[in-house]
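Module 6 notes. Inverse folding takes a fixed backbone as the condition and produces residue identities as the prediction. Think of it as a translation problem where the source language is geometry and the target language is the twenty amino acids. Below is one complete input and output pair. Work through it position by position during the lab.
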């Protein structure tokens, strides 16, 4: 997971048309796509809207000049969490149907219903489209830019300052963890090495976790002391300067928002 953190931030530092867009535009477009697919009332029309939004996502991803392997790898990391919840729906009689037709019967009297399979597939479309826009946003926008964009959009300073500190501290912790992992590797210790006794491996991992907690606490104390020396207090805030949008960014935002809104409305109203 630490390596994935660095990989995500590394992708955000690349250069393309999408990377150069203002973070506010990308954030609002991603939110619009997620809201459109989630707000669509339950029906098979979600397949059509999902196809339109996913095609729009593919266009944006192609313009970002990122490899499809980047998207597939990150989707594969998140997909198991959604598949577990979505797959469970095929065994449940949901309230959207009055009649259920069993597809197959498993041991212990467990039945899979055709209507529940359809419901699970609709949830899967919503999940993939929403996650795709989040992956696009995180892969083309730096964390600090996202934070500043949220502040410019009206996020209170009580949130922006802690989030800014958290973003910085995540990478400090990642560097600390990398050093501990390198130290373990130089001592030829592998927690997955089955030739070592299980109790010994468990004991060493316990020492490692304790060391991480202690070093994190010490780092937190040093960070807080540094903040006090720089005038941090109850009224401190993260300075976010004004940044006007260019004509091209406004045009792209208006076009993207129109496409998403019209697609949702026309598909919903189509008989």
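Target side of the pair, the amino acids:
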């Amino acid at each position: 997971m630490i390596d994935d953190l660095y990989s995500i931030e590394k992708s955000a530092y690349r250069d393309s048309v999408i990377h150069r867009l203002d973070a506010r535009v990308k954030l609002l477009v991603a939110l619009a796509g997620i809201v459109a697919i989630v707000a669509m009332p339950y029906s098979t029309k979600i397949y059509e809207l999902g196809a339109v939004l996913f095609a729009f996502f593919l266009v944006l991803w192609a313009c970002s000049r990122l490899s499809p392997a980047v998207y597939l790898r990150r989707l594969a990391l998140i997909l198991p969490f959604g598949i577990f919840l979505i797959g469970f729906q095929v065994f449940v009689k949901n309230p959207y149907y009055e009649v259920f037709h069993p597809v197959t019967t498993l041991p212990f009297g467990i039945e899979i219903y055709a209507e529940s399979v359809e419901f699970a597939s609709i949830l899967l479309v919503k999940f993939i489209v929403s996650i795709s826009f989040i992956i696009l946003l995180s892969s083309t926008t730096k964390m600090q830019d996202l934070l500043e964009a949220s502040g410019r959009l009206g996020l209170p300073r009580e949130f922006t300052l802690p989030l800014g500190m958290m973003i910085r501290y995540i990478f400090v912790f990642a560097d600390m963890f990398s050093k501990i992992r390198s130290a373990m590797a130089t001592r030829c210790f592998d927690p997955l090495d089955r030739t070592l006794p299980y109790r010994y491996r468990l004991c060493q991992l316990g020492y490692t976790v304790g060391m991480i907690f202690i070093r994190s606490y010490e780092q937190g104390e040093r960070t807080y002391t540094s903040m006090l020396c720089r005038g941090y207090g109850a009224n401190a805030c993260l300075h976010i300067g004004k940044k006007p949008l260019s004509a091209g960014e406004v045009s792209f935002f208006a076009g993207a928002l129109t496409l998403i809104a019209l697609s949702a409305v026309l598909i919903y109203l189509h008989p």
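Reference fact for the lab report: DSSP finds ten helices and two strands in the chain.
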